[in-house]
Each structure stands twice: as structure tokens, then as C-alpha cells.
Amino acid sequence: MADYSNQTRSLTDARAFTVPELCNAGAISLLILFGELLVLVLLFAGGEVSWMRLALMSLFVQWVALTSAGLICVLRGWLARLPLVAGSLTAFGIVMSVTLIVGLISGWVLSGGKPTQVDVSRLLGQLVIAGIISVLVLRYFYVQQQLRAQEQSELESRIQALQSRIRPHFLFNSMNIIASLIATDPDTAETVVEDLSELFRASLNDAGNQVALADELDLCERYVRIEALRLGERLNIEWQIEAPTRSVKIPLLTLQPLLENAIYHGIQPLPEGGTIYVRLWFADDSVNVEIDNPLPAESLRSHSQGNKMALNNIRSRLAVLYGGRADLTTSQADGRYVTALRYPLALDGTAAGGSGSGG
């Protein structure tokens, strides 16, 4: 059913008009650059080559380009609701209308504000050139936006697949724990079932969702409780958490996979176990997390390889949500493995900018 809904939404999107994003500095810069390149082509294509003619042509082209972009930005919400053909023709008509109006005004200004006969051939030439350029520019921005949307869709699908995967060995171990506790300690068995169901619920949630940081920490504690039943006294966790408010957000299933890696690669191979230090603090409008676990000397290589996929997937997710303002780094020293996470502090649930499963 979900696949059918996704396919239906994709077909609907394909038939809808995708409005180019012209309201940012990058798009405006490209418009200005394209406009000036067009001016140079027209300047040297024929007629007098002079600074005055260059200035007048630049003024005309930039007025048309920036005014058209401004109107499309203002009407973006309305245009996005139109079918593909109607939306494309409307955007094209906006550019043509702006070109006609600017052409009439420029002719009136150049005549000194006196009533003068409209130079039809000049206006037609301006409209033809504006039409060709507007089609090319709108097509360019459309293709760029479709590529970005496709890349993000593919990444979200990949994140969803990773997020929906719980290590089989963890699931089997949890079920064995539940089975062994039903007869001797039914209350604890019930708690394990509740914790496991919360982990599954989170893993099946929508990719990219941001949740309260306190909820993510609660999910980590549920995971640790299950693993503690299996590892016993071998597993020690020291939490050094600066109390987050409910409004502090984090991408769902970001910390839990990092903690899972620390237990799987750091504690499980050690017969004597060890201690994992989880530190979280706020500084410079950022959320900072460190997970410090022991690293057996003989497993340095395997830990690095096994951790790589999980870390790369979480880095990809952070890049989508926060761009370059988030980072995930690792370091090894004195038999310890430290994973450090930093991302912008967001208090309203939106990315202050846009998890994979354990490796």
C-alpha cells in the first residue's frame, strides 16, 4: 500500500509544474551572469560597439531577468499547483509580459518621455530573444531542481532502508532473553518487550524525522537495558548529559546506532567488558556528543571496517539536513575509540540549516 501511494505521488509530481527556485543568491547570480553573457553576444553580433550601448542593453536585460524572477518567486505557490503545461506556459507568459512592458518603457524613456511611434520590429526582436533565453533558463533550473530532488529521494530511500534494519543477532538475542525471562521474571520480560517494540517503532519511522533529543536519549537507554541483560556486569555506561529541553531536536536514530557500534565493537569482544562514556553538552549554538568506548587491540582493524558504513551513512544524513554545519569524526588513542558528533542547535524542530543502522 505504501509503495502504491509513493508511485501515485511520483506520477502526480511528474505531471505537475516544478517551479524553479529563483529566490536565492545562487540563482540570482546565475541570472545576472546569463544576462550579461547575452548582452555581450548581442553587442558583438551587430551594430555599434560602445560603452553606452553596452550599458543600455545591460540595463534592459537585467530589468527583464530580475523582474521576471521576482514575479515567479512571488507566484511560486500558485504556479506549483498548476499542471505541467499550464504552469510552463504561465511562467513563459510572465517573462514575455515583463519583456513587453520593459521594452515599451525603455522606448518611451529613450524618446525623452515624448509620445512616439512604437518600434514594432524592435519589440518583436526583444520578445523573440527573451522567449528563447527564458525557455533555456527555465529548462536549466528545472533540470537542476529535478536532479537535486532525485538525489535527495534516493538518499532518503537509502536512509529508510538502513533505518528499518535492526541487526538480526540483536533481535535473536532479545527474543532469547524474553523467552528465558518469561518463567522466572515476567515483569522484566514485559519490560524487554516494551523496549524492543519502541526500537522497532523508531526504526520504521519516516527517514529524516527529527525528534526531541530527550526521546532519542530514552531510545538509547532502552537499547542499553536490553544489552545489559545479555552482557551483565561486562557492560557499564557512564552518562554525562547536560539536560536537554524538550524543544532541542535531533535526527531520529542518530545516537542509538553510534551507541550500538560502541557496544558491539568495544564491549562484546572483551571478556572482562568495559565502560562506555556518553557525553552530551551544548556550546556555541551546537549540540555536541562524544561516545568513548574501549577498543581491543586485536579488533582495531575489524572495528574500523565495520564502523565505516554506519558512520558514512550518518554523515550523509547530516549533510542533507545541515549541510557543512554538522560533522561526525572518530579518533583512536590509548586503546579507546571516540566518536564525536556536532550539529547545529535547532529549537523548533526544523533543521538549523535539511541514521543509519550499526555497521
Radius of gyration: 29 Å
Rough shape? elongated
Q: Count up the domains.
A: 2
Distance between the termini: 30 Å
Descriptive overview:
The protein has helices spanning 2-15, 25-45, 51-74, 76-79, 84-110, 120-163, 168-184, 186-203, 213-231, 255-267, 300-322, and strands at residues 210-212, 235-241, 249-251, 274-283, 286-294, 327-333, 336-344. It is an alpha+beta fold. The protein folds into two domains: 2-161, no CATH class; 166-344, Heat Shock Protein 90. The strands form two sheets. Strands 2-4-5-7-6 form a five-stranded mixed β-sheet, with helices on one face. A hairpin with a 2-residue loop joins strand 6 and strand 7. Helix 3 packs antiparallel against helix 5, helix 5 packs antiparallel against helix 6 and helix 8 (186-203) packs across helix 9.
Key words describing this protein structure:
359 residues; alpha+beta; Heat Shock Protein 90; 2 domains; two-stranded antiparallel ribbon; disordered C terminus
Provide a concise account of the structure shown.
This protein has helices at residues 2-15, 25-45, 51-74, 76-79, 84-110, 120-163, 168-184, 186-203, 213-231, 255-267, 300-322, and strands spanning 210-212, 235-241, 249-251, 274-283, 286-294, 327-333, 336-344. By secondary structure, it is of the alpha+beta class.
Write the layout of secondary structure elements.
Blueprint: H1 2-15, H2 25-45, H3 51-74, H4 76-79, H5 84-110, H6 120-163, H7 168-184, H8 186-203, E1 210-212, H9 213-231, E2 235-241, E3 249-251, H10 255-267, E4 274-283, E5 286-294, H11 300-322, E6 327-333, E7 336-344
Parallel strand pairs: 2-4
Antiparallel strand pairs: 1-3, 4-5, 5-7, 6-7
